Amino acid sequence: MAFIFENLKVYQKAVDFAEQISNLTDNFPRGNYYIVDQINRAALSIPLNIAEGNGKFTGNDKKSFFFIARGSTHECVPLLEICKRKGLISETEWKKLSFQVEEIAKMLSGMINRYS
User: Fold this and answer.
1) What share of the chain is helix, strand, coil (3-state, %, to 5)?
2) Which residues of 14-47 are buried (b: 16+ CB within 10 A; e: fewer)?
3) Average pLDDT, rounded, for the chain
4) Cα dihedral sign for 48, 21, 74, 13?
5) Cα dihedral value 57, 59, 60, 65, nearest 10
6) Which residues, 6+ apart, have CB-to-CB distance to 115 below 8 Å?
7) Would you say 97 and 89 are in contact if contact means Cβ atoms under 8 Å apart?
8) Measured in whole angstroms, how far is the alpha carbon of residue 112 from the centre of its chain?
9) Is the CB of residue 8 less than 8 Å from the CB of residue 51?
């Protein structure tokens, strides 16, 4: 792997999560573009900000991008809930994805605390 951040478990989990969201929303019925776009952008923002934060030199700069990534995990929570309520994802899918995004958020909190 060319970049150190690619070895981070949180980065790998975030990429996996974004890929799962992308694959899942590919099957959403037409007319749900607004939620497809929003949840994909939020999910993709997580690994993108982890990568960008790791490219920064100062701890404060790194921490800022990890905060953004963690904020994106929180954005995914109500989006997943709405998907479940609209019947776009099953209860099982919702539980699995919610657990994953919570795990990523906790890992990001640990990274943020490292620079505090």
Assistant:
1) 80, 0, 20
2) bbebbeebeebbeebeeeeeebbebbbebbbbbb
3) 97
4) negative
5) 80
6) 59, 60, 62, 63, 66
7) yes
8) 16
9) no
Output the six-digit token pair for 18.
Answer: 């974004």
Model confidence over 101-116: pLDDT tens digits? 999 999 999 999 998 8
Domain 6-114: CATH class, spelled out: mainly alpha
Using one digit for the tens of pLDDT, what is the confidence trace for 2-32? 999 999 999 999 999 999 999 999 999 999 9
User: In terms of Cα–Cα distance, which of 57, 67, 58 is closest to 113?
Assistant: 67
The C-alpha atoms of residue 52 and residue 67 are separated, in whole angstroms, by: 12
Residue 85 burial (10 A CB sphere; 0-12, 13-18, 19+): exposed
pTM of the model: 0.96
Cα(112)–Cα(81) distance, rounded to whole angstroms?
26
Distance CA 35, CA 61 (A): 30
